[in-house]
Amino acid sequence: MIRARITGTGSYVPEKVLTNLDIEKFLDTSDEWIRTRTGINERHIAADGENTSDLATRAAERAMEMAGVSAADIDLIVVGTITGDYPWPATACIVQSNLGAINAGAFDVSAACSGFLYALSCAVDRVEAGRSKKALVIGAEALSRIVNWEDRNTCILFGDAAGAVVLEACEGEHGVLSTHLHADGTHLELLYQPGFGTRMQPSEQALKDRNYFLHMQGNEVFKVAVRSMTDVANIALKANNMSVEDVDLFIPHQANIRILNATAKKIGFRDDQVYINVERFGNTSGATIPLAMDEANRAGRIKEGDILLLDAFGGGFTWASAIVRW
Ligand code: UT7
User: Is 283's C-beta closer than 6 angstroms to any atom of ligand 1?
Assistant: First the structure.
């Protein structure tokens, strides 16, 4: 059977770091509140003129370098993002042009914080079907551009980043073993960006109402996130005839330390099986999982043959998991 194997990982975060102490200076909040309620100490913020496609391109270059593949070898680019450079065309097309990936098809996937796993699933299916040999899958976000920096309920959570993997068609037992995708659109207004799609056009009133910004009812999202991430992780384990003991590294979407800990505990993981970096980057939506995977990989925390469980939840609602044999 042809499998899609991850042969390279890469990530990129903007240089500028915004700490909780920096936020304290312009918002009615405190470092203590943010740390204890979210586990976040700091996040990275894209510079003026630095766009989602720039972050994505740099992460992709690093992943390609590790995999030892050239831009011309890439036949597919899928970007999971909700903060594309433009409403359309796809940010993946800008990445394709930046890289000079002249042989690649390119499209974006919109599944919010589950965006990377949705993108991965699309690419894995094409690789396994024999339609793609070398694919780039990227999660990239510049969320700082769509959060309301006057809303303490949301802005403290988010950051900018990109992560990427190269997937290659390989024979054998290594690669992405499964992907599971779920969605429930009935709760979309708990976490969404009201403007400016076709439902709400830009107007003076809409701008005044802050409708361009991300809106979230955090405590409602919290409950569904823990339940859904637990469910979809268990579905993945069952589908692969695995138990929590078989998993070497659990990489959950990094939204909030309390969500991560509650989910890991409900699934049954020990602390040393769980990868956490939310304290340094905050919630970078579609970028959290590939960013964490690249960090863990470069730190030598992932070894050949290791089993990884990837797990995400986000706006839509969407939730997803993947099991990978490294
Ligand atoms: O990526 C997937 C999608 N997103 C998420 O998974 C995020 C999910 N939600 C969360 O992470 C948490 O719900 C938050 C961190 C957003 C909020 O934590 P919480 O424990 O659910 O707090 P809360 O919303 O219930 O608010 C508790 C209090 C409120 O004050 P009152 O009404 O009790 O007086 C808030 O106004 O905390 C207040 N508060 C703050 N205080 C200081 C909210 N944000 C802040 C803040 N600084 N930044």
Answer: yes
- Domain of residue 63 covers 2-173
CA distances from 186 to 183, 189, 318 (A): 9, 8, 11
**For ligand 1, what atom is nearest to the CA of residue 255?**
1
CB-CB contact of 312 with 321 (8 Å): yes
Phi first, then psi: give them for residue 279, nearest 5 degrees: -65, -25
Residues 23 and 40 in one domain: yes
Q: Tell me: do 56 and 159 sit in the same domain.
A: yes
Domain boundary among 173, 200, 227: 173
Domain boundary among 173, 194, 222: 173
Three-state SS sequence of 119-156: HHHHHHHHHHCCCCCEEEEEEEEEHHHCCCCCCCCCHH
Decide: 36 in ligand 1 pocket, CB within 6 A: no
pLDDT by 10-residue block (mean), the chain, 326 residues: 97 98 98 98 98 98 98 98 98 98 98 98 98 98 98 98 98 97 96 95 93 96 97 98 98 97 98 98 98 98 98 98 98
Task: Give the tokens for residue 80.
Answer: 């999971």
pTM of the predicted model as reported, rounded to 2 decimal places: 0.98
Q: How many domains does the chain have?
A: 2
Nearest CA to ligand 1 atom 20: 37
